[in-house]
Amino acid sequence: PNIEVCKQILRTVTSLCASQKNVVHIPTPDPGARLVIVGDLHGHFEDLMHVLREHGEPQMGPGGVKYLFNGDFVDRGAWGPEVLLVIYCLKLRCPDAVFLNRGNHEDEQQNLKPDNGFVHSHCTRAFGSDAMRMYALCRRSFREIALCHVIANEIVVIHGGLPLDPNIKLEDINEIDRRRSVPMHHCSLLGYPRYQTV
Question: CB 3.0 to 4.6 Å from 144: which of 18, 84, 88, 98, for a disulfide?
């Protein structure tokens, strides 16, 4: 992909997401419209294309379709940069029809693991000698992605499931500083703690 275009996409979506709170409210879909929740693409580009072919491109209004991408856009699958850029382009094109939740793989600790491959393999393949500069922009964008969406004031969608502590309220989630690495004591929002029994 063209590096300058990619930089602009990453910077623009970062600014857009930065204006949102940790908890984003999605209104009830219009009559005849759909909301599709997509989880854990993990860099599998063909899976993303299948979802879009099956449900259509995002659009507002009656008969339209909205998407909530519920985290883990990258790592594992080799096409993470492309999956991320397509999702970001959809968000920029239809900001009120595309929503993004941060998952535990939208975090530097996960991205740097050799098994996951996003930084040292996938970004290098996609961006060549600009890989580390482009990853820095990706990482910056990850820190601005919302943590939770509430659909029609009834359904809560959080990557990794609801908090294990039943006393956690949406206001508590809004107070989390999402603009840093995922702290272990908050990981019940983004994935279960190690050795957790459910």
Answer: 18
